Amino acid sequence: MKEIYIKCIAGKVGVKDWQVENCVHLFEEGNTIPFISRYRKEKTGGLDDAQVAEIQHWTLVFTEMEKRKEGILSTIESKGALTPELRKRIEDCVVAGELEDLYLPFRPKRRTRATVARENGLEPLADRMWNVSLNDPEAEAAKYVKGEVSSVQEALSGARDIIAERLSESAQVRNSLRQAFRARRIETKATKAASSSPEASKYRSYFNFSMPLQKIPSHNLLAILRAQNEGFLSVGLDTDPQKCGNRIYYDFCQEHRYPGPRLADQLRQAVDDAFKRLLEPSITNEVIKEAKEKADKESVAVFGDNLAQLLLSPPVGQKRTMAIDPGFRNGCKIACLDEHGNLLHHEIIYPHPPQNQKVKSIMAVSSMVEEYAVEAIAIGNGTASRETEDFIKRVGIPDNVKVYTVSEDGASIYSASEVARKEFPDEDVTVRGAVSIGRRLMDPLAELVKIDPKSLGVGQYQHDVDQGLLREKLDNTVAACVNSVGVNVNTASPYLLSYVSGIGPALASNIVSFRSSIGGFKSRRQLREVPKLGPKAFEQCAGFLRIRDAENPLDNSAVHPECYHIVDRMASDLGVTASSLVGNEELIARIRPEDYVEGDFGLPTVNDILKELAKPGLDPRQSAQEFSFADDIHEIDDLKPGMELPGIVTNVTAFGAFVDIGIHENGLVHVSRMHGKKLKLHQTVRVRVLDVDLDRKRISLDLMA
């Protein structure tokens, strides 16, 4: 990759040039983001997965830009217009907008007013006006009154069209206006369609709105642009045509020279026409698009943070679980799972109105808890969730059986998906949905990777942002979470395995098939026998796969097989076996990391090995905790300002956090009411009710200490 790109990426990410250059080489060698950030710290200077991912993003952007430059240079050269100066400007460009500005005069065009003027032979007149080489434009224009040009005014008009197009294609003019427009205010007005559509009411705060473009929050801009796309708002910038025209004219005169009064009038007309007809609409769209790209990045970052928190939610682990998908008329769907998440039994009970089969339901639940040795109960947080939780607590379940509320977001998407049909071909969607709720409690990460992240309810305007950027962020986030936790290769589903570094769907399927044929992996070495899992794939995935009760205890750790020999040296120097080192903090404390630095394995790698030896295979996630909502709050009508309530954060956005307080509607803690604190998804909090809008079903909350 060219040095100009290396330096640009380093500036954007805030790292050193050599770190970027090494990352680019590692990408070219086929290494993944998780592998690079975990096992190549010496080469990256300890960059984390987010920094490596950003470097990869810009590497791809500039790779595509380089291809674009080749096409542009070829086109301009074919026209015989490629000067050494222009070539250098194009080759040195690192901003897409500026590159397109340089190409604009040479880009194939549709038929324009300037095209017609050239066809009518008016370009020489425009050239003389452009070069300020005449004082009497009318007298010069008279020479061109012939053919399709019927008058002096028509000749001058055509020449002005050519000049206006040249101004609109000037990289200097466009860049100057772009900078000026960025400092303006975005303004919105309601359209006629908005006054007659109930759907437009949600945008009413933008019906007469104005704010500096550089200061507008991302969620406001995305809402405005969505409303514009739906036809409810007209959107523009408060540009000053007179001031902008003066600026263009002054720059033109500085580059050429000041014309006489008669030519000045013609040139000023061309400038005003260029601004109004060509430049203002184009630059306005560019600058708003640029602002949207920034808003997209901010929203995608929020989505990625929320997704990571959701995927890394505390699991209850391998416990026999009763999962309940609650409901009123259609009953509560129950699935009983063993400690591995396998379905043992399912049925429907009707403890709520209109059936009210409470006694029968109590007997059924008690029987299932006993028969299937249930250790945990997962209740979906949808319709009838609170009522079902109250019912379960009245059943009289054993004290050791804990009750948890689980998010249902995306469960219906999963239950109707191809993934669910393959897992449970003989069960209907209601059973699959209940199973998903139970498995989410046992291991959120393993279950949620089966669902499109956009269906998990943790985003902000996820359908309005750049979908390619969003997909890239979500894929990287899921991969980072999966690899940070590690995967048990003998129990993981192919969907979970596919996110492990270097594997992917095809290899994941091969691993599962091979695992079945041999009755489970006994060592990481056996991974080499999996069809199509070559040396590079093994290098990338081995450190992230765990094998419990393996012949070599390091196979159940994050120590990479390429470093096993270092552990053997450590053990030999201490006069013990490598197995004796694992988990023995006293022995590990006697090791000097500096003594084991060798070749490509520096202090960062050795220190990581020692941390892993102390606590091999440590799951970074916390344990799931029980939580209870306020007993006397079930409906929005029960809320009163001043009430203090427990809640669970369900979504975090740029403008605040939504909190479930045990009723159908979530409340909002506006960012101004967070008191400088940063909340996380599924965090338990205490909030104070500030305001309840019953008509709009909106609840304003204040975060308590």
Helix and strand arrangement:
Elements: H1 3-13, H2 17-28, H3 33-39, H4 41-44, H5 49-78, H6 84-91, H7 96-103, H8 113-119, H9 123-130, H10 137-142, H11 152-168, H12 171-182, E1 185-190, H13 192-195, E2 208-212, H14 218-229, E3 233-237, H15 241-255, H16 261-311, E4 321-325, E5 332-337, E6 343-349, H17 358-371, E7 376-380, H18 385-395, E8 402-406, H19 411-415, H20 418-423, H21 429-442, H22 444-448, H23 467-485, E9 487-488, H24 494-497, H25 504-518, H26 535-541, E10 545-546, H27 564-574, H28 578-581, H29 585-588, H30 603-614, E11 644-653, E12 656-660, E13 667-670, E14 684-693, E15 698-703
What does the model show?
The chain has 705 residues and is an alpha/beta fold. Among the domains are: 3-94, Orthogonal Bundle (Arc Repressor Mutant, subunit A), CATH 1.10.10; 321-442, Nucleotidyltransferase, domain 5; 484-614, DNA polymerase, domain 1; 636-703, Nucleic acid-binding proteins (OB fold (Dihydrolipoamide Acetyltransferase, E2P), Beta Barrel). It is 49% helix and 12% strand. The strands form four sheets. Strands 6-5-4-7-8 form a five-stranded mixed beta sheet, sandwiched between helices. Strands 11-12-13-15-14 form a five-stranded mixed beta barrel. Strand 5 and strand 6 form a beta hairpin. Helix 9 crosses helix 11, helix 11 (152-168) packs parallel to helix 16 and helix 14 (218-229) crosses helix 16 (261-311). The relative contact order is 0.07.
